[in-house]
Design goal:
Layout (H helix, E strand, L loop, with lengths): L2 H18 L14 E5 L2 E5 L8 E2 L21 E2 L9 E2 L15 H11 L9 H4 L1 H14 L8 H6 L3 H13 L8 H18 L13 H8 L16
Antiparallel strand pairs: 1-2, 2-5, 3-4
């Protein structure tokens, strides 16, 4: 890989991670951990809209266990309210998005932890609270996770496709990219990618194939104004 290839991959990587982590300010997914507190070394989360009682563990696939194939961290689909911190739930019982790329789902935590040599099943919040794991989980996902697409984000970059990286990371919500419900997230991701590409001095943007409608959304937002605009993309044809 020469310097120009590295720039293309770094732009795609940092554009995506900047978006996923809200400008590197949110190591934990807002919807599952809008607020967090630490007590006696344990992290507790208050999910958006949570008022107490049992909480649905949205990223728990019960068919994936430590003894299944493929494996996953053991998890419970419903987790209780903390008795020591009322109104919060214990963060280490949940497998929501954490880290620079917001690693999610119990099976991804298992695979990432096994690859890194760290127990992310018992301590999934390491991916948010430990700076090393904030980034190594992102590197693992980028280079190892194929999801439903059958290739990694790194391979998509080699194929010249930024759209492929979007599909792998969040295709269930952002592809097709023209869905009005998620359009604002797509536009924000495009703006972050364009900004990273400019900062790194790439000669062009990668292609948008691999995520239906992404080219169309790019063509619209780079010339738009207001909330539907991606101003960092205006310099890219």
């Amino acid at each position: 890989m020469d310097d120009s290839d590295q720039k293309y991959e770094l732009a795609a990587f940092f554009g995506n991670t900047f978006h996923e982590s809200d400008g590197f300010t949110a190591p934990r997914e807002y919807s599952s951990c809008r607020e967090s507190i630490t007590s006696n070394g344990e992290v507790y989360c208050k999910p958006e809209g949570y008022t107490g009682g049992m909480y649905t563990n949205r990223y728990c696939s019960t068919v994936h266990t430590t003894t299944s194939e493929p494996a996953g961290c053991d998890c419970k689909p419903q987790v209780p309210e903390s008795t020591s911190q009322p109104g919060y739930v214990e963060a280490n019982l949940l497998f929501f998005g954490r880290g620079a790329i917001h690693l999610s789902w119990n099976y991804n935590y298992f695979s990432a932890g096994a690859s890194m040599g760290v127990d992310l099943c018992t301590n999934p919040d390491f991916a948010a609270s430990n700076a090393e794991y904030v980034w190594t989980t992102a590197f693992w996902f980028w280079t190892m996770n194929t999801g439903a697409v059958g290739k990694t984000s790194a391979q998509s970059v080699t194929d010249g496709s930024f759209g492929g990286t979007v599909n792998i990371i969040n295709g269930g919500l952002e592809c097709p990219a023209t869905d009005p419900v998620t359009a604002s997230s797509v536009i924000s991701r495009l703006d972050d990618y364009c900004a990273a590409s400019t900062a790194l001095g790439t000669e062009k943007l990668l292609g948008f194939e691999g995520c239906d409608g992404l080219q169309e959304q790019f063509d619209k937002c780079r010339t738009a104004t207001g909330i539907n605009s991606c101003p960092s993309c205006s310099v890219w044809a």
